[in-house]
Amino acid sequence: MTSTHQPAPPFGRTLCAMVTPFTEDGALDPDGAGRLAALLVAQGCDGLVLSGTTGESPTTSDAEKAELITAVRAAVGDRVALVAGVGTSDTRHTAELAVAAEKAGADGVLVVTPYYSRPPQEAVAAHFLEVADASGLPVMLYDIPGRTGTRIEPDTLIRLAEHPRIVAVKDCSYDFLGTQKVLARTELAYYAGCDEHVLALYAVGAAGCVSTVANAVPGHFAAILDAFDAGDTARATRLQLAAIPLIEAMMGAGLPGTVTAKALLARLGLPAGPPRALRPAGRETADGLRARYEELVSAW
């Protein structure tokens, strides 16, 4: 049996929320970013999200964001979609970053709810609409109230879906009921932004995932979606559950995903470097991450 899973994904299906590699002294490492991006694509990603939460966007300059897009585009060519994080608390600045991302070669922009200021829903909608009008790029809204302090409420998402360039949502809302409400009433392409929800959200109509854990195991998440699309839901379930120990170690152990992803990539000899504005993971944590990684790859 073959799945007829819809909708067609606007930015690919298996996206990695890529770390931003830095040199040991904390400078942007564009060569490392290109090498990591090429590896992620070779191992199963058909889209990359740059300068998101995992990409430490609050700590990089506007010039570094543009340089990162340019470096990754040079490394992967036109084979995959590049979605550039441009969200800030300032609507005007966010719009400027969207224009800059378009000039640098991005295929879309990821726009988070203005954080810290906790705007009401009318202001949230106005922010997104102004940014969507600022460039010709399609927009992925980023609903992550645990970081921003403000939800994009389902009714607001349904309204925003009427804009022709607002096409997708990265869902970290932890509101499965609200997500299904929006899926049922709009054509928005939903991407699971929480790795433990990849299969569950895909099963009710999502377009794919934007995964932090995919920095280390991109092929595993592609395999989950492949199995579901092939109608082998039992295999898709086994693959999702097999990833839980690594997901928990990276995303549920009290450290930001940026920190754990960079620690694991460093243990694997891949470009990462230290995080900015965050303490790196200790040796014991890095050892545990490597152990969970080895368990997963050896099982599959």
UniProtKB/TrEMBL annotation:
The keyword Lyase applies. The record marks 53, 116 as: Part of a proton relay during catalysis. One of its GO terms (molecular function) is 4-hydroxy-tetrahydrodipicolinate synthase activity. It is found in: Cytoplasm. Pyruvate binds at residues 54, 210. It is an enzyme of class 4 (lyase). NCBIfam families: dapA. Catalyzes the condensation of (S)-aspartate-beta-semialdehyde [(S)-ASA] and pyruvate to 4-hydroxy-tetrahydrodipicolinate (HTPA). This is 4-hydroxy-tetrahydrodipicolinate synthase. The lineage of its organism: Bacteria, Bacillati, Actinomycetota, Actinomycetes, Kitasatosporales.
